């Protein structure tokens, strides 16, 4: 019998997944699935973590007493390659995989203890936190180049511009630029092209208030198409490297979790870290802060700062349009377009 403490009514995923038919179907099967993997992997489960919108995640103990985390995810394209990317990284900056059932979207992962998020380390200066994150990113990128000759594959949507849980992309190996990649990880060029299509549709659809420069949004959409094919270096990128996805641990000081991997330009990755370590647009001189932070992270990761900044513009536009599309409230769109303008000027675009 399933322990009711494993499914508290306040658990966000239980509410979020009720919004769609496929989500409701998954929720109906979830208690049985939890029992199945508890027994199959011989786990003692504790109450789940209160985070995430499309996965059930709980601390566990293995039969030998090892601390672990059981993660069961609603089946969708962006979640498919998570286990493969983590196995490729093999603990080099990321959590280890103890067990993996890719067909069932089930993972048993290394537990990060004490598990404090980088975003919560407010006792450290913002730039120090940026450098901590940049160090982990560099390790992931180095490990992510070890894809093996001849690897191809497709299948990941990062759940931002394309909409979380939507199956976008054109299938295995359909990227228009780049070379080898880890199986099941889609090319960044394919995913970003889908985001660009959605961005342009959203720009055209809305009746924008006076003062909104939609040309800045179109600039971002264009960058989403151009940037993936304009770089040289490629690797498996994390895809959602925000400071909430970097946790303190025992094996290493900081480990990355919750990857949304794609294969492409590493300069794609830093923007969520730069933006969310604290709000750069909340400073008296946002452009100075943005210029400093992008330069700092580019230097620490060995990445071209012009590409880091250009990707920042592209990702900010994608993020803003996605969230405007979610709530339909354009009242803040003038301020948002000014944020894009400030960042575009730093990038000299």
In short:
With 349 residues, the chain is of the alpha+beta class.
- Structure annotation, total helices: 10
CATH superfamily of the largest domain: Aminoglycoside phosphotransferase (APH), C-terminal lobe
Q: What is the spatial order of strands in the main beta sheet?
A: 1-2-3-5-4
What value does the Rg take, in angstroms?
A: 20 Å
The tally of structural domains comes to 2
Sheet/helix structural class? alpha+beta
Known CATH architecture of the largest domain? Alpha-Beta Complex
**N-to-C order of helices and strands:** HHEEEHEEHHHEEEEHHHH
Low-confidence stretches: 148-175
The percentage of residues in β strands lies in 5-15%
Mean pLDDT: 89
Biggest pleated-sheet summary: 5 strands, antiparallel
Global outline: globular
Quaternary assembly: single chain
Alpha carbon gap, first and last residue? 59 Å
CATH topology of the largest domain: Aminoglycoside 3'-phosphotransferase, Chain: A, domain 2
Helix content: 40-55%
What is the CATH class of the largest domain? Alpha Beta
How many beta strands in the DSSP annotation? 9
Helices and strands, with pairings:
Blueprint: H1 12-16, H2 21-40, E1 44-45, E2 55-61, E3 67-73, H3 82-89, E4 97-101, E5 106-110, H4 126-144, H5 188-205, H6 214-226, E6 235-237, E7 246-248, E8 254-256, E9 262-264, H7 271-276, H8 286-301, H9 305-327, H10 333-346
Antiparallel strand pairs: 1-2, 2-3, 3-5, 4-5, 6-9, 7-8
Question: Could you walk me through the main structural features you see in this protein, from its secondary elements to its overall organization?
Answer:
The chain has ten helices and nine strands. With 349 residues, the protein is of the alpha+beta class. Helix 5 (188-205) packs antiparallel against helix 6 (214-226), helix 6 (214-226) crosses helix 9 and helix 9 (305-327) runs antiparallel to helix 10. A hairpin with a 5-residue loop joins strand 2 (55-61) and strand 3. It is 41% helix and 11% strand. A five-stranded antiparallel beta sheet has the order 1-2-3-5-4, sandwiched between helices. The chain has a two-stranded antiparallel ribbon with strand order 6-9. The model is unreliable at 148-175 (pLDDT under 50).
